[in-house]
Amino acid sequence: MAKKLKWFMMFSSFLCLFLLGACSNSASQSKNNENESSNNSSEDNTEESGPVEVSFWHAMSGSGQEAIEDVVNDFNESQDKYIVKPEFQGSYEELLPKFRSVGGTKDAPAIVQTYEIGTKYMIDSGYIEPVQSFIDRDNYDINQLEANILNYYKLDDKLYSMPFNSSTPVLLYNKEAFKEAGLDAENPPKTFNEIKEAAAALTKKNGSNTERFGFSMLTYGWFFEELVATQGGLFVNNDNGRSDQATEATFNSEEGLRVFNLLNDLNNAGHFGNFGTNWDDIRAAFQTGKVAMYMDSSAGVTDTIKNAPFDVGVGFIPYADETERQGVVIGGASLWMSKGISKANQEAAWEFMKYLQTPEAQAKWHVATGYFAINPAAYDEQIVKDKWAESPQLKVTVDQLQATIPSVATQGALISVFPEARQQVVTALENLYQGGNPKEELDKAVEATNKAIEVANKTKK
Amino acid sequence: MKLALHDTPNLSLNPKTSLWKQTQKARVAFLYLLPSILLFSVFIFYPMFKTIYLSFFLTDQQGEAALFVGLDNYQDLLTSQSFHKSIKATLLFVLYTVPAGIIIALFLALMANEKLRGIGFFRVIYSSTMGISVAASSVVWLFLFHPSTGMFNRVLNLFGIAEIQWLLDPDWALFSVSVSTIWLNLGFSFLIILGGLQNIDEHLYESARIDGASYWYQLRRITIPMLSPTLFFIITISLINSFQTFGQIDILTKGGPSESTNLIVYSIYKDAFINYQFGTASAQAVVLFICVLLLTILQFKLGEKKVHYQ
Fold it and tell me: Where is the composition biased (Low complexity) (chain A) (predicted)?
């Protein structure tokens, strides 16, 4: 027996040794990395022959990817000191964990595109160099940029990342369906009640099947956030987390409940089409005439107009009848500069970011994708004017943004657990469509979000 | 592995020989095992212990252990409604996919085992799903299930039946995902079972035919018993596989709607890589590990008795 025990001890101590070996290996490796990176940066400083090559991680697929590669090529050809290499790294959700695994090391890409709700996370991560330090150094004038977009990304008057692709939600509708239902196709519904009336008129039934739904909304937290914000409602406390760390979610307020009640009423009346959580599904439903009105990102407007076999109208997102329209919160993504990479690489990233803000680059980007021009001077460029003449709907998206009243509500919430909050809203919406009680579902989502916020705040250093 | 190491010295138990000599066999054995132990330690044991370690902590945004909470993560799981839903969904999913998948694969393999002209073509077709990646086939299924342009709903429309929200209705979503999973795993199960069938000694059937046994009698008395090791293997593998299903879920439903397809592995992924809660994710992983372990032990205890090895 004793012998057995001895053997067991020996064996387990061997195992422990291996484990320790594995642990210390990785630890010493990361130390090596640090040394290397400092070596590298000094090397980079001394020998500056040939262009500096930096990688740029982005999450744009499809036509967005073509457009972004186009813009990057223009930059590479415009000068010979830097070469930016665009690398597609999957969706925003997939890109972030990848960045996390290399963040802070010399292997990190110089430029990373991160979606708007990752802003707080990136600031807290410590992996990034605030662009404000370069703005201050060069006295770069950021006031040329769209104020409503800067408002979102500024925290304590400091700009951490460079805004890049910005979008807002808009209401898209089928003009032919409007005419068929006897509605004014040039005058889309503006308030929740008008949406309900229009949806009732637009819904077409054939026995038990609904041939056309009046209204739909992608089951995605962003649209809910926007509908709350346009009424002036806050998503979390402490001024949407902008005056202090947010400690509680507040989207089960009156404003949030109004949104849920609207969707619930539409759904119960059979005027609401549920097309799930996939952007392509709801777009296909609109293209095939299965739904007459829906909300989409302004970045999807160009494609939708191009693909739809009918006339597409674009309107502002609706607001509750009891309130005034406050406007929209910026969505999309911004570009971040990595920390821990060499000075020369940061310099390259900074040059690229500055290039992106030029009216020419922005005009090209806006026309190709439908994302906003961060630099409003781009709207005076000829290619934008031509495009707007061709599809005036694009202008509506810009009008909506510029009509936005700046406030903490329309600045948008800052919390690090945003992805989780969105999941909770999605679950609440899904339950609602299955006949859940609006108030109960909303309260449940808030409760779960609160728990996530609490955990995140507890573990914050 | 461990057992072998403990037992070897006892086998050559001789009080007079020195410890060094006594352990000779064990040391040699250990040398042989060294490469695999090394690999296992790095890729299995270390992550496993790290997972257990992390499950006692709340992690910060970098995924480092930040706050020791003891068993709180486990306690939260046991009281969490969404985890209960997750367990229920996983068990249902296993129930939907494993028996149906194996029965269909067995049926196809029995047919493909007949000696007919051109049977090779059918064997290739039946096992072809093995060559398709989860991602690619899931995207194809996504089109089939599409709410407005999907083929299934068009067929239903043709017959005047009300459309079904395949992936959007919580009552249907798990079923839809199961159907695509069964189809996806069919190729592998088919191939393994066909291999097992081909290994059965032809003489057994010949003798049975001489005795005048019917097809069904042969199937019941010869094919199934002779096939039992293969079936046992494929049941175990399918069971573990379906507990670990991830790809289809991620592409088809992302765990929705109303968390109805939020299988444990997907829930772990979501907690760890979207919400950065590695603590709760690790706790779930440990629970899943224990469940699969218990189930496999149970299966070996109950199932192996019925298995007939040649």
Answer: 29-43
Report CA-CA distances (Å) from A352 to A53, A178, A243, B70, B250.
12, 45, 32, 48, 35
Residue A266: its pLDDT value, please?
A: 94
ipTM over 0.90: no
Instruction: Give A-chain residues touching B258 at CB under 8 angstroms.
Output: 427, 430-431, 434
Q: What's the structural domain count of chain A?
A: 2
Average pLDDT, chain A: 85
Domain ranges of chain B: 2-54, 82-306
Query: Measured between CA atoms, how close is A401 to chain B, in angstroms?
Result: 29
pLDDT recorded at residue B157: 82
A127, A281, A307: best to mutate for the B interface, most B CBs within 10 A? A281
Q: Give percent above pLDDT 90 in chain B.
A: 35
Cis peptide before B15 (omega within 30 of 0): no
Question: What is the rounded distance in angstroms from the CA atom of residue A221 to the CA atom of residue A420?
Answer: 10
Query: Shortest Cα distance from A47 to chain B (angstroms)?
Result: 34
* Burial environment of residue A338 by CB neighbours within 10 A (0 to 12, 13 to 18, 19 or more): buried
- CATH fourth-level superfamily of B82-306: MetI-like (1.10.3720.10)
Confidence of residue A461 (pLDDT cuts 50, 70, 90): low
Domain that holds residue A102: 50-167+331-380
Alpha helices by DSSP H, listed for A126-244, are: 132-138, 147-153, 175-180, 192-202, 221-229, 237-241
**What digits encode the pLDDT tens for the residues B257-276?**
888 899 999 999 988 888 88
In angstroms, the CA A174 to CA A80 distance is 48
Cβ B259 vs Cβ B148: under 8 Å: no
Residue A319 inside a domain? The answer is yes
End-to-end CA distance of chain A: 49
